[in-house]
Design brief:
The chain is an all-alpha fold. It is 88% helix and 0% strand. It is built from three helices and no strands.
Length: 104
């Protein structure tokens, strides 16, 4: 792999890591879903770009990629937990409202 390709790949992996960290922070801060979706689209675009350029992945990059995959799995699990909690809260509020309306 040429030095230019190595630098390009390093930069793209660094950007992916920054995006993953930002998405994780936004999920924990209960931020609007549209910001998370925008960052996720950007993340997918970078991944597609890496695939299209067909870079040869070196061992040093493999560790970073494994770390990113692990971080993304954690992000997905956190996001699913947050959504489950939000849904549970909505269902509880709905039951309370229905019980209140039945009392009249």
């Amino acid at each position: 792999m040429s030095q230019t390709h190595k630098i390009q790949l390093d930069n793209q992996l660094l950007k992916l890591e920054e995006i993953s960290n930002t998405i994780s922070k936004l999920i924990h801060d209960n931020t609007d879903l549209s910001q998370i979706q925008s960052l996720d689209m950007l993340r997918k675009k970078i991944i597609k770009d890496i695939q299209l350029k067909n870079f040869k992945i070196e061992n040093s990059h493999k560790k970073t990629i494994v770390s990113l995959i692990s971080k993304n799995e954690t992000i997905i699990a956190d996001f699913n937990n947050k959504n489950s909690n939000n849904l549970r809260n909505i269902q509880n509020e709905k039951r309370r409202s229905q019980a209140y309306l039945r009392s009249y």
